[in-house]
Amino acid sequence: MSRRVAITGNEAIAEAMRQINPDVVAAYPITPATEIVQMFANSVSDGKVDTEFVTVESEHSAMSAAIGASAAGARAMTATSSQGLALMWEMLYIAAGLKLPIVAPIVNRALSAPINIHCDHSDTMGARDSGWIQIYSEDAQEAYDNLIQAIRIAEHPDVLLPAMVTMDGFIVSHGMSNAEFLDDDVVRGFIKEYEPKHYLLDVENPITVGALDFSDWYFEHRRQVADAHTRVKDVVLQVAEEFKGISGREYKLFDGYKLDDAEYAIVIVNSAAGTAKTVVDELRAKGLKAGLLKIRLFRPFPQEEIVEALSGKKAIAVLDRADTLSLMGGPLYIDLRAAMYDSPGPRVKMVNYIYGLGGRDINMEQIAGVYNDLVEIVKTGEIKRSVTYLGVRE
Amino acid sequence: MAELLEIRWHGRGGQGAKTAAILLGEAVSISGKYIQAFPEYGPERMGAPVLAFNRISDEPIRLHCQVANPAMVVVLDATLIGKTDVTAGVPEDGLYIINTNLSPGEMRDQLGLADGKVYTLDATQISMETMGRNIPNTPMMGALIKATGLLTIDEFVANAKGRLEAKFRPDIVEKNIQAIERAYQEVQGEE
User: What is the pTM of this model?
Assistant: First the structure.
């Protein structure tokens, strides 16, 4: 029997981690992810998990310890946010380069400066080329479900890559809403025991991890990381299908909301997608063919499927809660534009809105305004501005 | 009840506005409704004005923006009135529940309201007499249940008790329940 509860996003993640019962968790506290580690530490001290919990002096060390544990053959996890993820940066690349299936919930928070503890996606978007799988979550339920699925995805023999599951800081991490938890034995039956093929503590079959790798083989090894990413999509879909069997909840590479017959589409990730879906409902009631595409799997980027879903739309607005400062728009927009270069038929008009930096609220009226802009673009055939900063004082 | 009920709690840091929103959310959720409960995240200083919010619906709630137009406002500390605009964004038929020793009519005049509904309760006195401390959030929930009929008082008390028991000693739980039940009886409307 699943349990329907009222919980915060952090509570949902801490509960998923308790149920996953990883071999090793190494973590350092940072707002707004602190509670995850704090609640999980309670599970450790209460004897509810068998985890070796490693307290470390920084996030760099947290990721280093997770890498060591994973290389040794353990199921290893950590959790962080913002500056913490930034401090892990060099180790993120090492986790991916060594193909270690570490799983980490990341609570999205802005990066300094100025110092800010609230939500935007600068932290995980900054890690998008690190080689980690990235899965984005709209609410506590999705974060819980995605974290459990991420264990299977990361550890799949065809994949063996680290994976981060993100949710919005404060909005989801600290906001209370409803979710359904699965039973412990159902979760454990789903994730199964981790059985690494090659690991340091397998003394019968000694291996070297992290050896020097010059121009002779480095390129091949990095190429293998890309090759592993090509297999992620299928595994994500297989795992989602199985997960539906235990939960009744359906997950795909992305969530198309009233998208099939939509003429005007918004592309978005995480919590603001929920607000935008409500706007879509209101606009549909007024007769406007509005739709939405919420990306779940952002790394690797499911280009083919997204292009297929968006081809033939009259106009698309990509909403980014992060900037690249390339002056070409936010990270989602840049990827979407590149992806849509291969779309069949006439070029779809696309614009970008950067919103919500540092936790700035985005409301229904603003999102409705974006759809209005798309209608205007189609009517006039003219894009006045490719990149708009939405809800900022100019 | 409207399809989606949005509630704004006004209080001062330390009075338990966030706790009230969470407890209300948890208690209402047990009866099968969908809820959200969240504070306005700012610097949390003892005595400074703070806000907390609830959304309550029979359907799953997808909105993740702030509550701008709450149909209901709960004020834990009447000294906030005049210093913060507790009526901001509230529709004309909005419902107010104020912790004050004034009558609903007197409070209506002070707020300058032509329409809507005003309920008052001396939650501070109830809190002092039942719990020996000024924590007006718990009695205000009793007033809210009476004013809205979201749940029956018995159902609410049963749900809230379970949640309180997870957090407090049995004698503290009992005092909180007393405060809720007294508030349910003593809240004044305008009929």
Answer: 0.97
